[in-house]
Amino acid sequence: MSTAASTVERPSRARIIADLQALLGDAGLLHLPEDLHPYECDGLSAYRQLPLAVALPETVEQVRAVLGYASRHAIPVVARGAGTGLSGGALPHTEGILLSLAKFNRILDIDPRNRTARVQPGVRNLAISEAAKPYGLYYAPDPSSQIACSIGGNVAENSGGVHCLKYGLTVHNLVELEILTIDGERLRIGNAAPDAPGYDLLALMTGSEGMLGVITEVTVKLLPIPERAQVILAAFDDVARAGHAVGAIIAAGIIPAGLEMMDRLAIRAAEDFVHAGYPEVEAILLCELDGTNEEVSEHISQVRRLLQTHGAVEVRTATDEAERARFWQGRKAAFPAVGRISPDYYCMDGTIPRSRLAEVLTRIGELSREYDLAVANVFHAGDGNLHPLILYDANNPGELERTEEFGGRILELCVEVGGTITGEHGVGMEKIDQMCVQFRPLELAQFHAIKAAFDPAGLLNPGKAVPTLHRCAEFGAMHVHQGQLPHPELERF
Length: 493
Ligand SMILES: Cc1cc2nc3c(=O)[nH]c(=O)nc-3n(C[C@H](O)[C@H](O)[C@H](O)COP(=O)(O)OP(=O)(O)OC[C@H]3O[C@@H](n4cnc5c(N)ncnc54)[C@H](O)[C@@H]3O)c2cc1C
Description:
- GO terms for molecular function: FAD binding; oxidoreductase activity.
- The chain is α+β, with helices and mostly antiparallel strands.
- It has four domains: about 10-100, Uridine Diphospho-n-acetylenolpyruvylglucosamine Reductase, domain 2; about 105-220, Uridine Diphospho-n-acetylenolpyruvylglucosamine Reductase, domain 3 (2-Layer Sandwich), CATH 3.30.465; about 225-415, FAD-linked oxidases, C-terminal domain (Vanillyl-alcohol Oxidase, Chain A, domain 3), CATH 3.40.462; about 430-475, no CATH class.
- The protein has 17 helices and 20 strands.
- The protein has a seven-stranded antiparallel sheet with strand order 15-12-14-13-18-20-16, sandwiched between helices. Strands 5-6-10-8-9 form a five-stranded antiparallel sheet. The protein has a four-stranded mixed sheet with strand order 1-2-4-3.
- A hairpin with a 5-residue loop joins strand 8 and strand 9 (about 185-190).
- It is globular.
- The N and C termini lie close together (about 5 Å).
- The model is unreliable at about 1-5 (pLDDT under 50).
- Bound molecules: flavin-adenine dinucleotide.
- Flavin-adenine dinucleotide (FAD) binds near residues 89, 121, 144 and 461.
């Protein structure tokens, strides 16, 4: 994206800090290096840089004032929720303001009749379900980071989670958003009525990674807490067989509330960490069924049969809530568990057609040997959303670069088999080059046009999510014939 308009004279750093202090008060601005360090990265800690300052507004008027100031002086702004993002989306801009929405943490309204919750963007994902519980309701999308991540970040990343196979991603569970554009214009998009008129701006904004506007309020759908939920753990001595079992369950017309898979390395790490009682096998599937009592009983026996006919060496059904929680505990703690067995790991995220699961896992295994880097696979199998965790040691010279290249090859493999480079983690900085593989120049040009319609000077989260055509050419993912980039008529950003 183009960066700040060059004609605007930029105030000095000291001036910017003094001006922002005047807008936000001393408590609303951090600018000393020691205060800035906690914000130097998101969950993708391989990339770090300090922002010019961190703004901590408390009111929408303050957000508007910060955006207006940034817009007048051509200063980049990066919005930040809880900073749990895994693609470097909230990585600060060294010359820019990091706009934290952490103080927007109030649940504004729970409406049990309409089954909605209106919340501020800094509210934690899990806090919504906790607040809705007394009404017998919950918010379905459940990223594994749900105890920490914010709903604003979930909207910006179109986050998923275990429940999303059955209940949809964040985008399917939203009713309305309030956003501020970089010029401080306040927009309400979406509608309480089932079919909002006009273009679907709600969908456009969901997954827009802080590039189009700052989300200041979110109204989400709530669902009734199911009468019963029960989980089955199936063990396999072959990863491919587990992959085929996933396809068989869905093909049988059963949509589980969650269908997750872990491979040997992930199982061992999780078991050593939380002692979930996992067997020592090549792969396990966790399949949760929810609904009415009758429905769950019927689905449990159907799924057990399917798993057995597809080669499961052991099938266990959790018999009570404690056992169900224990089965899930290992899966939910898998990322930190892998963090205990390797100095560093790099979490990839791509989606593939479920039918290619077994083949892709086999090819990831081959790449693992080629790059001499171990991989632990733990993922949303039902969605075809892979999370290969590449284990590496950043202290070994060149190992991070090898890991990044390996990660890039996995994403390209996802595209090759008809999938996508993002499952649920967004593009951010991490996957920006693979956007050149996923999209053609004209498609990227359309993305730039949409960005320009909301943010003509390219001040919101510059350098993220949508690559310039030059970047694609440099990455080698665009054919440059005799030194001529394709589509010379298009503006080069
Ligand atoms: C252990 C672990 C497990 C995870 N599991 C999952 C998972 O199962 N599913 C999943 O989808 N993700 C998962 N994630 C990734 C991450 O939690 C999600 O992407 C989450 O939505 C990020 O929310 P956040 O509040 O931390 O956003 P941040 O990291 O702060 O920001 C993410 C992006 O959103 C933008 N943004 C944040 N707030 C706003 C706002 N108010 N307005 C405009 N833009 C904004 C930022 O600019 C940035 O581009 C996991 C992360 C970790 C660390």
